[in-house]
Design brief:
Helix content of chain A: 55-70%
CATH architecture of the largest domain in chain A: Orthogonal Bundle
Radius of gyration of chain A: 27 Å
CATH class of the largest domain in chain B: Alpha Beta
Order of helices and strands of chain A: HEEHEHHHHHHHHHHH
Number of strands of chain A: 3
Structural class of chain B: alpha/beta
Largest sheet of chain A: 3 strands, antiparallel
Largest interface: A-B, 25 and 30 residues
Structural class of chain A: mainly alpha
CATH topology of the largest domain in chain A: MetI-like fold
Oligomer: heterodimer
CATH class of the largest domain in chain A: Mainly Alpha
Number of helices of chain A: 13
Shape of chain B: globular
Strand order of the largest sheet of chain B: 6-7-8-3-9-10
Largest sheet of chain B: 6 strands, mixed
Number of strands of chain B: 10
Strand content of chain B: 15-25%
Distance between the termini of chain A: 23 Å
CATH topology of the largest domain in chain B: Rossmann fold
CATH superfamily of the largest domain in chain B: P-loop containing nucleotide triphosphate hydrolases
Order of helices and strands of chain B: HHEEEHEEEHHHEHEHEEH
Distance between the termini of chain B: 27 Å
Number of helices of chain B: 9
Strand content of chain A: under 5%
CATH superfamily of the largest domain in chain A: MetI-like
Chain lengths: ~325, ~300
């Protein structure tokens, strides 16, 4: 372990596996080894205790008390196994929930299947991010390129980015109704201001020598933006957009709670209400999987889009 | 000074020119004036204090001449070439290209920078096409010309490579081709080989001379390497620092065509002696924060010496 020293390919592989395996191992240990944690007892046989049902959870101390009382009075002794609280399901239960939650029909007639909820969420993110980008990306580039535009905009943007997007929820409902409009608006508000600042900074990092070289080649200053600035920052801009898309996802749950609850949020809150915690975990994990999957696809596409970036490491 | 005159007596004066060299300068000076810098002033303002970076610079360059500009650090040689390129404003005087004052950057003055400024998102070929395209040439015509220039510098095999796949020397060759593709009147070079290793630099110098002999181009070349200046230049413009002023415009007496073996000839050594005299005796006072180096205390035993 040395500062700033790259890993060997073998070490990279091993540590990469560990990053997934370690948390899973901890989860499995806590779930499947009864001696670890398991602060509760799940009743398998209520015995003579009238208020106990099969499958009910209670603390180990309370259970021991009931057992001692029953034994002292010579009644039938309740039986149970050590268990974790219902809010921590085992990896196996969550894995099963991935499958079953897709197969479970909606509880109400106008309800949505899980895949429909997910698709709804993806559409909210898509439109929110698209609308934000249509305005945010050009404004960011202009702010980065022209100091005057930055002066005019950035103090307001700096102020606005501290306003929590959910704070606009009620306002958004009043203006845009209760369906998808306000949800998309929250994603836009959450993304847009960061987007302007981040892209402006990326634009400012452009090497001014490239602009000078273009000028000495006869480029007119109004051509600089399209001929030099945009192509030069494009790979970094793409990376910024990937990060910002991740942020847009983090606003999803709050956004979907506004107006009529919808999408994956509806699924998660509904399942939590019925205490189907394996389904809740599966729902949360699906957001992570979709987000990470999209990002990996975009990274892959980026390598095809910007071939000149690829051999950069080699020559550096 | 005493050492200097001793050197002089051995190598003679840099002012002595052979018959052939004198005749060549005569023909060179008969050519029209390509670039004229007259009474050029440039001030820098920092922390409310105005200092003169360039003061009353005057010189003329003939067509197809190769001029090197040397001087101590801080003499404003980069500023001078950037003003000629139109990348910086000046505070007085004028830069005339074929008699016309220059105003801002333009494709009649190409430039090669010390840092690598090829556009990383364009292939080598498209880098060379860039100037042609922004100046309104069609794609096909630009491509044809770009390939010709790549052939001239011997990099046609790398036409479809990206700049970051090239070595430093190759990048600068492409940068030269990119600047020349516009067919500028003047090529400005700001320490273009400064970042290259010694071997590559030597090859690049020969390469540049080769290109310069074959096309109609006037070159102004900034360097701090005196050997490089003597090897390349017809004439060397020597600047002093604080403020940057012209000390002397030296006609290099080394016969053309040049090669590295001439660096031990009488003319070469005499010119170098003169340049060193000009630059090191007129050394700028230490810049702010950079004091004279101290005399070190001895940290070894006096008896532990072989001298």
């Amino acid at each position: 372990m040395q500062v700033l020293r790259p890993l060997t390919p073998r070490a990279r592989f091993v540590f990469g596996i560990l990053s997934v395996a370690l948390p899973l191992l901890i989860w499995c240990t806590v779930s499947y080894v009864p001696a670890v944690w398991h602060p509760q007892v799940m009743i398998t046989n209520p015995g003579s205790v009238s208020y106990l049902d099969v499958g009910a959870h209670m603390t180990r101390e309370a259970f021991a008390g009931e057992v001692a009382d029953a034994m002292a009075e010579g009644r039938a002794v309740p039986e149970g196994v050590r268990a974790n609280p219902v809010y921590l399901p085992s990896p196996g239960a969550v894995l099963k929930a991935f499958y079953t939650s897709f197969k479970t029909p909606p509880e109400t007639k106008d309800g949505e299947w899980l895949h429909q909820s997910l698709w709804h969420s993806i559409q909210i993110i898509f439109w929110g991010f698209l609308i934000s980008s249509i305005f945010g990306v050009p404004l960011g580039i202009l702010c980065g390129a022209y100091a005057a535009i930055a002066r005019v905009n950035e103090s307001f943007v700096e102020f606005a980015r501290y306003l929590p997007a959910p704070a606009f929820g009620a306002l958004a409902v009043a203006i845009l109704g209760i369906y998808d409009g306000p949800k998309i608006a929250i994603i836009v508000i959450g993304t847009f201001f960061q987007q302007v600042l981040i892209i402006a900074n990326t634009t400012r990092k452009l090497d001014p020598a490239l602009l000078e070289a273009a000028l000495t080649l006869g480029t007119k200053s109004r051509q600089l933006l399209t001929r030099v600035v945009i192509p030069a920052i494009l790979p970094d801009l793409y990376r910024d957009q990937r990060i910002l898309l991740g942020w847009a996802w983090t606003y999803l749950i709050v956004a979907e709670l506004i107006g009529t609850t919808s999408g994956i949020t509806w699924f998660i809150t509904q399942q939590a209400r019925y205490q189907h915690f394996p389904n809740v975990y599966a729902g949360i994990a699906m957001i992570g999987i979709i987000g990470l999957g999209t990002d990996m696809l975009l990274a892959l596409a980026g390598r095809r889009l910007f071939p000149w970036e690829r051999s950069l490491v080699k020559s550096a | 000074m005493k050492d200097m005159s001793a050197t002089m007596s051995i190598v003679g004066s840099y002012l002595e020119q052979s018959e052939a060299v004198r005749a060549r300068f005569g023909r060179l000076k008969a050519r029209e004036i390509m670039l004229e810098v007259s009474h050029l002033h440039k001030n820098f303002t920092s922390a409310g204090k105005t200092t003169a970076a360039l003061k009353d610079i005057n010189f003329k360059v003939h067509r197809r001449e190769l001029i090197c500009v040397v001087g101590p650090s801080g003499c404003g040689k980069s500023t001078l070439v950037r003003i000629i390129a139109g990348l910086e404003e000046h505070n007085g005087g004028a830069v005339l290209l074929k008699g016309q004052p220059v105003n801002g950057p333009g494709s009649d003055r190409g430039m090669v920078f010390q840092g690598y400024t090829l556009f990383p998102w364009l292939t080598v070929k498209k880098n060379v096409m860039f100037g042609l395209e922004v100046n309104g040439h069609g794609r096909l015509e630009s491509e044809r010309e770009a390939l010709q220039w790549l052939q001239l510098i011997g990099l046609e095999k790398f036409a479809e490579s990206y700049p970051n796949q090239l070595s430093g020397g190759m990048k600068q060759r492409v940068a030269i081709a990119r600047a020349l593709a516009n067919q500028p009147r003047v090529l400005l070079m700001d320490e273009p080989f400064g970042a290259l290793d010694a071997q590559t630099r030597s090859r690049m110098q020969n390469h540049l001379l080769e290109i310069w002999r074959k096309i109609d181009i006037t070159i102004i070349f900034i360097t701090h390497d005196l050997d490089e200046a003597i090897l390349l230049a017809d004439r060397i413009l020597v600047l002093s620092a604080h403020p940057g002023e012209v000390q002397e415009f030296i006609e290099v007496p080394v016969p053309q065509p040049r090669n590295i073996l001439q660096s031990v000839t009488r003319e070469f050594l005499a010119t170098k002696a003169r340049l060193e005299e000009l630059i090191y005796t007129h050394q700028a006072p230490a810049e702010d924060g950079e004091e004279d180096y101290p005399i070190m205390a001895r940290m070894t035993n006096v008896s532990d010496s072989v001298d």
